[in-house]
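ugh ok so i messed up the first submission bc i forgot one of the chains. this is the corrected input, ALL of the components this time, i swear. 420 residues overall. if the numbers dont match what u have on ur side tell me asap before i send this to the collaborators (the ones from the other lab, u know who)
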Amino acid sequence: MGIERHMPGRQPRTRIQKKNTETILEAALDVFSQHGFRGSTLDQIAKAAGLSKPNLLYYFPSKVAIHRALIDELMQNWLDPLRKIEADGEPVEELLAYVLRKLEMAREYPRESRLFANEIVQGAPNIMDKIEGELKSLVDEKAQVIDGWIASGALAPVDPYHLIFSIWSTTQHYADFDAQVRAILRPEGDAHFEDAAAYLDTLFRRMLTP
Amino acid sequence: MGIERHMPGRQPRTRIQKKNTETILEAALDVFSQHGFRGSTLDQIAKAAGLSKPNLLYYFPSKVAIHRALIDELMQNWLDPLRKIEADGEPVEELLAYVLRKLEMAREYPRESRLFANEIVQGAPNIMDKIEGELKSLVDEKAQVIDGWIASGALAPVDPYHLIFSIWSTTQHYADFDAQVRAILRPEGDAHFEDAAAYLDTLFRRMLTP
DNA sequence: GGTGCTCTTGACCAAATGGTCAAAGTTGTT
DNA sequence: AACAACTTTGACCATTTGGTCAAGAGCACC
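and heres the new structure output, hopefully the right one now
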């Protein structure tokens, strides 16, 4: 019967498919991260990608499919910095390195951060399953590691969950609220990230050193 | 010539106008804070307000006018907690009280916080003037106060701007990323705000105590 | 150089959406 | 009660938007 008409296949086969799906996702990231899902149109994305609208829909079956592909891609990398925390490292330094990695992500991938932020602010309609699953279990796991460190006396006693929240919020702030940060600091380029790194190092070092 | 046709006047005159404009703004806050500006429709707002769509447009000339009214109202109260910081108070306690006030706002007015967040994440298209004006000058002023406290030795040396950013981000996180926080903590009601208050008090107390 | 596959697009469609309007219903005042 | 002002709405409109389709262009392999 008439099955998948337009879709070439789940993943790119030819080089032209690979190039175009990448171009589309790149353009979609630009648009979605700036206007949110509902605020973005296929025409905008098509224009940004330099393709026609029907051509977009040749590679992706729908607008939500593009968004989903983007979110899926994002969620894979998003948790990497947290995964890298190692239980047998030096506690304070492990956590400070994590802070720095997150801040680095905010600097290097602000669009991804905003895409994520847009999604969560609006109640995470499309990724609640991933948050309740993958994300929660990873956080639970690392919270236990932190509790272990505290029990061993190598770390000042803190609530590990709120610690993680405060690391997320302070670092992502520089990506998600970039417009505000820039309006207030008027920095040249990314200069303020240096100061942010120094500030956050001090903040969390004082918090965590026993 | 044919001027303001539908609008009763800039501000409500009759009690029925007052009641309805309030109802509309209340409903619009619900809708806008949940779906963002572009993601919200007049029909949604009308339905939430229990009015017909043309009736909305009798009180407000357009969708953006409703949004603007909401943002204007919000900006007035948003800066109050920061204004309340007094230069002749005890520095550490003044700042910790500010943290608590901001956290309280996140708990009491999460919709307002998300409305604001939605706006900033998307580049603050409608309020950049207010951010560059009112907000920036208030922050500059308080940054000077903080610098004064540091010079007097009553406060540990910190970058006042990044300090303020970290207070904003950590507190607003509980409103803006509520969906994520709840998915991870699974709290009953607002119980986690108590823990957040204790955590943030510790975090900033350690940071700020000389 | 033809045959089948991949890729591209102009024209089109149905639904949603912001907004208008004239007419009808309410309310307040004298 | 009557008159004017205020309030409400059903019907309507133009535009935008996600998505379809059939026909045409490239491309590859024999």
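quick check: Residues 8, 14, 16-17, 20, 51-55, 58 of chain A lie near DNA strand C (CB under 10 Å from a C1'). that seems consistent at least. Residues 15-39 of chain A form the longest helix (25 residues).
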